[in-house]
Design goal:
three-stranded mixed β-sheet; about 475 residues; alpha/beta; 15 strands; TIM Barrel; globular; single chain; binds 2-(hydroxymethyl)phenyl 6-O-phosphono-beta-D-glucopyranoside; eight-stranded parallel β-barrel
């Protein structure tokens, strides 16, 4: 017997834009994911000016879950899932984002999908915004830098909360809202917030402004959701990447502390309902002239989340520079150093199972809320054998070592944990690289980076392993 609760939510996680395809089906509008090309390992995705002929947009078809969902859900049931985390594509419900009436065909699709899941006793766990906001809100409003987008999001949230109030209990507002800590690249600002910087704009300031509007929108959604159904559990969704000091040098330790503060203030605001003092002071000292109103601060206070959902893939480490500024400002993408004590994946992601237990303790101490591990997994190139089997012991090894740490955090540290939904348990389009061949799945999908393949589904070795893990409630890994 593992120490996990009997009703523990063993599941799997995906996001609408990464598996559904059907990018124009049922009146769906263009999302930010629909204008991102395929990249590769170390090759960034390009953001095009609208949908351009001749470009390869992997999310347009993805794995065509839109047309395969009935058969796929049958496979999920065979796997033994108790929960299926996906997102609702905002553009199926409000194709442009600023309409006043929702698109019925889009709403119907999720009704059918949720019914199909519930038929097998699989709970849908829903993210409202997972890197797929309407592209129209980018071109017409400049993305989340415009306060009016709060209202559009709240309308979308209200529509789906109302429609699915008896089918969905667990919700999350913004996927990995804190990814935009990496504001110096184009990827996170665009995928999280539909931001494309204008000449002369200060990326950091823009990030603080958009993230503020998003936390306000999130807090409004929490309040509205609780009114629609008081049993709703509405969480934050944080990309947890613990940042360690590179050495015991006190300056490295403080640098790591500042890095953690910088990456996780989003969770402070969503869970505690207020900005941390260090950040208010930092924003003041930096001279950012931010639109943060007193009513906004009341909204934040009144709309705190019910749980912390988080992804966990890896950890970072930082080292203080010789000439640190007084603020010890952490700049993501610049200040990280390699951690020689851990291994790395082919994509350079540092593999650190112990860090998951650390992260769970850190969250639990800080917020005193239940946790939900809503992503964890190992992206790798798989080889399909002539007989159709896929032997992926590296994936099983990664997951086993993380689940071990997760169970220690529950059994030894007493941390309340709702569930575990490994990422991309059916192969899908990578968010970061746009690849198909960077695979996380227990279910293989026959499609490659060039977009070739039959889309046929088959079971990898990891499928049978995870099935057994669920059967034994995590006792036999
Ligand atoms: P891919 C960066 C770092 C950690 C998680 O990522 C990240 C990212 C963004 O790429 O994203 C989450 O597909 C995200 C998923 C994504 C998954 O991790 O780049 O919530 O949408 O697919 C894995 O390998």
């Amino acid at each position: 017997m593992s120490g996990l609760p009997k009703d523990f939510l063993w599941g799997g996680a995906v996001a609408a834009h990464q598996l559904e395809g059907g990018w124009q089906a049922g009146g769906k509008g263009v999302s930010v994911a629909d204008v991102m090309t395929a990249g590769g390992n170390g090759v960034g995705r390009r953001i095009t000016d609208g949908v351009q002929p001749g470009e390869n947009y992997p999310n347009h078809e993805a794995i065509d879950f839109y047309h395969h969902y009935k058969d796929d859900v049958k496979l999920f049931a065979e796997l033994g899932l108790k929960a299926f985390r996906t997102s609702i594509a905002w553009t199926r419900i409000y194709p442009k984002g600023d309409e006043t009436e929702p698109n019925e065909a889009g709403l119907q699709f999720y009704d059918d999908l949720f019914d199909e899941l519930l038929k097998y006793g699989i709970q849908p766990v829903i993210t409202l915004s997972h890197f797929e906001m309407p592209y129209h809100l980018v071109t017409e409003y400049g993305g989340w830098r415009d306060r009016r987008v709060i209202d559009f999001f709240v309308r979308f949230a209200t529509t789906v909360f109302t429609r699915y109030k008896d089918k969905v209990k667990y919700w999350m507002t913004f996927n990995e809202i804190n990814n935009q800590t990496e504001y110096n690249g184009t990827f996170a600002l665009f995928t999280n917030s539909g931001i494309q910087l204008k000449p002369g704009e200060n990326a950091e300031r823009v990030m603080y402004q958009t993230a503020h509007y998003e936390t306000v929108a999130s807090a409004l959604a929490v309040q509205i959701g609780h009114r629609i159904n008081p049993a709703f559990q509405i969480g934050a969704m944080i990309a947890m990447v613990p940042i360690y000091p590179a050495s015991p040098d006190p300056r490295d330790v403080f640098k790591a502390e500042r890095a953690m503060q910088t990456r996780y203030w989003f969770a402070d605001v969503q869970a505690k309902g207020r900005y941390p003092e260090w950040l208010r002071q930092y924003q003041k000292n930096a001279g950012f002239d931010l639109d943060i109103t007193l009513p906004d601060l009341d909204v934040l206070q009144a709309g705190t989340v019910d749980y912390i959902g988080f992804s966990y893939y890896m950890s970072f480490a930082v080292k203080a520079q010789r000439d640190e500024p007084k603020s010890f400002k952490y700049v993501e993408g610049r200040d990280g150093v390699e951690n020689p004590t851990v291994a790395r994946s082919e994509w350079g992601w540092q593999i650190d199972p112990q860090g998951l237990r650390y992260a769970m303790n850190w969250f639990a101490d800080r917020y005193d809320l239940p946790l939900f591990i809503v992503e964890n997994g190992f992206g790798a190139i798989d080889k399909k054998e002539p007989d159709g089997s896929v032997h992926d012991p590296y994936r099983v090894d990664y997951l086993r070592r993380h689940i071990e740490q997760m169970e220690l955090a529950v059994e030894e540290d007493g941390i309340p944990l709702i569930g575990y939904t490994p990422w991309g348990f059916i192969d899908l389009v990578s968010a970061g690289s746009g690849q198909m061949d960077k695979r996380y799945g227990f279910i293989y999908v026959d499609k490659n980076d060039a977009g070739e393949g039959t889309l046929a589904r088959s079971k990898k070795d990891s499928f049978y392993w995870y099935q057994h893990v669920i059967e034994t409630n995590g006792a036999d890994l």
